[in-house]
Amino acid sequence: MHWNSLADFLAMGNHGLYVWGSVLMMALLMLAEPILLRHGRKKLVARLRRQYRAERSEARRNSQANPGRSKD
Amino acid sequence: MLRLLRAVISRDLRLAMRRQADIVAAMFFFIIVVSLFPLGVGPEPAQLRRLAPGVLWVAALLASMLSLPRLFADDHRDGTLEQLALAPQPLGLIVLAKVIAHWLVAGLPLVLLAPVLGIQFDLGADALVVLMLSLLLGTPALSGIGAIGAALTLGVRGGGVLLSLLVLPLYIPVLIFGAGAVDATVSGLGPQAHLSLLGALALGGVFFAPWPTAAALRVALE
Amino acid sequence: MSNRVINWFRYASPQTFYPLAGQLIPWFWALAALFGALGLTIGFLLAPTDAQQGEGYRIIFLHVPASWMSMFIYLVMAFWAATGLAFNTRLSGMMASALAPTGALFAFLSLWTGALWGKPMWGAWWVWDARLTSELILLFLYIGFIALQAAIDDPRRADKAGAILALVGVVNIPIIYFSVKWWNTLHQGASVSLTKAPSMAAMMLWGMLFCALACWMYSIAVALTRVRTIMLERERHTDWVRALLADKE
Asked: What superkingdom does the record give (chain C) (predicted)?
């Protein structure tokens, strides 16, 4: 182990601001990207499901409206 | 093949002549942008001399980009482009002719105007000569590279801004060697190395760029 | 031989690639976490202080992997672009557009960490150093690619236009880098080079290597996740997407 104390580790030899600024930004963006992707994917799946349901119910209504059609 | 080149070039030039206002507007854009800089940074001759190569080159780069969106747009709208794509001759060759025509209309006038503007920046005679030479070598490369961007953004919404976004990063080497040549002359070093690299870029830009441009046009026409 | 070729093309169809990617993603996340933990432990807890740059040099464990990935992803993008144009496979274009945002992210991170490293080392947030400048131009290229694809509505045209742009970009990158370097030496750039760490101890190299591997695995995981979303979106009218989403209802 290179460090003597937690304070030493956090100070990074007076370069703490720069080192931790880099770490923070990198961690932030590399966490944000997958989270945003997950969110976008969920929204897409929900949208597609709604769309499919709407299409199905419309198809059902059409077949009820003209029952002769559904046979052929 | 040369006949085809000549036919397309003269046709494009005739069309451009019908819209002289566009050419004149691009030239005035060049003049105005260059003239703004002394107003922005102050009139000290020494400082202006240092800024001149970069300012003139960046302004020339932007001015030659102004007419790029129209490079294929008019032909696309009236269906000529589709006819050209179906022609037995390679589309790249036709693109090459259009690039040459674009340079004659949008690049050459910049070369001729630049020394006049260089005087505003207190450039010496040898620097003015190198400035003209560098623009003479560099602007064909700009037209060639620009054609790729014009073909990619053909018929795309927000095409003009997008075009500059695509093309400007690719212009950087031309800018560096072009402005560098003038800079080297001003500071007493020879411009030869810069100019020969610029020449290589121009050759590459003019003779290789038409092929990706042709591919991009085919994609746009699908 | 021909058998293998057919096999590869089979995986190039979204319908077969989608579940395969779904199975692979957790593994890549696990690898990313493992390598990341190793790399950060070595880099931030075990590696000795650098004689010249003090503790500030530890940014290297983030900066160098981010720069490497930003360049590497552009190459991979160009590779997918080339295969897309050559074989007209749908997957290629989707992979290229899935990679671009991650590449741009790493280019940005490389600039950010570079600036934070430059401040204590050079005394300035931004120096027109050849590497930083090229990285900035690379970010511009990524942004151009993303903007072009976003502006074109027809996905097939977007794929092909993006592929041509990526290939033009990849041919130009060496020219751009060379010209920027030339420009930089003429204007007497920074005296301390960022990547030339004076005495790279073996420990530092290992730390950097593991961090780079972690970023690599991360990129694959994220790109696969994104490509799956793109597939659903683009293939929403096909039966397999309908069946897939109906299953989980």
From this structure: Bacteria
What's the token pair of residue A68? 């002769």
Q: What is the pTM assigned to this prediction?
A: 0.89
Residues 6 or more apart whose Cβ sits within 8 Å of residue B212: B148, B151, C164, C167, C168
Q: Which two tokens stand for residue C175?
A: 């020219």
Identify the pLDDT of residue C5: 55
Are C151 and B219 a contacting pair at CB < 8 A? no
B1 vs A50: CA distance, rounded Å: 58
Strands of chain B, DSSP E: none
Which pLDDT value is given to residue C200?
63
> How far is Cα B7 from Cα B1, in angstroms, rounded to an integer?
10
Half-sphere exposure of A55 (CA within 13 A, CB side): 10
How far apart are the C-alpha atoms of B101 and B143, rounded to whole Å?
9
C140 in contact with B, Cβ within 8 Å: yes
- C41-57 as b/e: b if 16+ CB within 10 A: ebbbeebeebeebebbb
DSSP letters of C24-73?
Answer: HHHHHHHHHHHHHHHHHIIIIIISPPBTTTBGGGGGHHHHHHHHHHHHHH
The DSSP-derived string for B106-120 is: IIHHHHHHHHHHHHH
Residues of C in contact with A38 (CB under 8 A): 225
Write down which chains contact chain C via at least 3 CB pairs under 8 A: A, B
Q: Are C116 and C122 in contact (CB under 8 A)?
A: no
> What value, to the nearest 5°, has the Cα angle with vertex C68 and ends C67 and C70?
65
What is the total residue count of chain A? 72
**Rounded Cα distance, C145 and C164, in Å:** 10
- Per-residue pLDDT tens digits for B209-218: 999 999 999 9
Q: Are B105 and B139 in contact (CB under 8 A)?
A: no
Contacts of A among chains (3+ CB pairs under 8 A): C
For residue C50, the cross-strand partners are C54
- The answer to whether C136 contacts chain B (CB < 8 Å) is no
Q: Are C80 and C95 in contact (CB under 8 A)?
A: yes
Residue with tokens 């503790």: C55
Domain spans of chain C, in order of start: 23-47+58-239
Q: In which band, very low, low, confident or very high, does the pLDDT at B166 lie, cut at 50, 70 and 90?
A: very high
pLDDT digits (tens, 9 = 90+) for B22-43: 889 999 999 999 999 999 988 8
Alpha-carbon distance B80 to B134, whole Å?
34
Place of tokens 């780069």: B61
* 3-class secondary-structure state, position C149: helix
Question: Which of C137, C146, C186 has the highest number of chain B CBs within 10 A, making it the mutation to test binding with B?
Answer: C186
- Displacement of CA C30 from its chain's centroid (Å): 19
SS3 C237: coil
Residue C182 near chain B (CB below 8 Å) = yes
